[in-house]
Amino acid sequence: MVQLFSSGGEVFWLFPTQYKEFVVGPFLNRDHYACFIELVLPLAVVEAFWSRRNKVAYAAMAAAMVATVIAGASRAGTMVVTLEAGAISLAAMWGRGPGTGTRVASLLRIVALAGVFTAVVGWEVLWQRFQDPDPFKFRREMAISSVAMVRDRPWMGFGLGTYESAYPEYALFDIGLRVNHAHNDWLEWAAEGGIPLFLLLGFVALWSARAAWQAPWGVGVVAVFVHSTVDYPLHRPALSAWLFVVLGALAAKAQEQREGRGGVG
């Protein structure tokens, strides 16, 4: 947040970018920053409810993360992190763990701190973006073009990494800018790798939803897969690598639970 408001668009106040605002850490795209927060936010929210110590510290971390997404003015990111935090909080309120009073206190703590931090960093730019009469402008046209690409090559696609070169033949608009991604990872995967790749990654997403049901700290994987319907975070190596780190942790947790049920020590 300090960098966002004081760096003038320079990453870590050192590296100039083509942007003059809304550069958060090394992220030049507000939605990609939001996806990073979607992956790490559940870790703090879970600990804010279930940690035996430092509940206040974890609540402050979670609230600060939510506030940074709001300050970054990502519309989809704000909706996803809000739903994400709400889902985990609901699971905490109805699940096992500390007494009801403790859980209610944890919930109120997160909500209050998020409100305070949001008031500090500001929500006006986000609100202005929500007033856009057509938030899917250009994204809608790119989606239609991507579906046409899938229709032409449903089984093999155009090849991984070829979206930018294959897209112009299907373009529905031209504003003088290069379209390098579909702004929808799912459609881009289908266009590049065909329906088989789409189904393969769909299976991973469904498995992650089932695994996160047992381990709420992993719900960020589901959140990013959902966010990927309106952006392309998983075409960024750092974000996709972190997502698979969390997926690996979910797989290890699932294996541990299976062995526990099977009596393996």
What key phrases describe this protein's structure?
265 residues, mainly alpha, 66% helix, 0% strand, globular
Fraction of helical residues: 55-70%
**Radius of gyration from the alpha-carbon trace, in angstroms:** 20 Å
How far is it from the N-terminal to the C-terminal residue, by CA? Answer: 45 Å
Shape: globular
Count up the helices. Answer: 11
Structural class: mainly alpha
Mind summarizing the main beta sheet? none
Q: Which residue ranges are poorly predicted, with pLDDT under 50 across at least 5 consecutive positions?
A: none
- N-to-C order of helices and strands: HHHHHHHHHHH
Q: What fraction of residues sit in β-strands?
A: under 5%
Give the total of domains: 2
Number of strands: 0
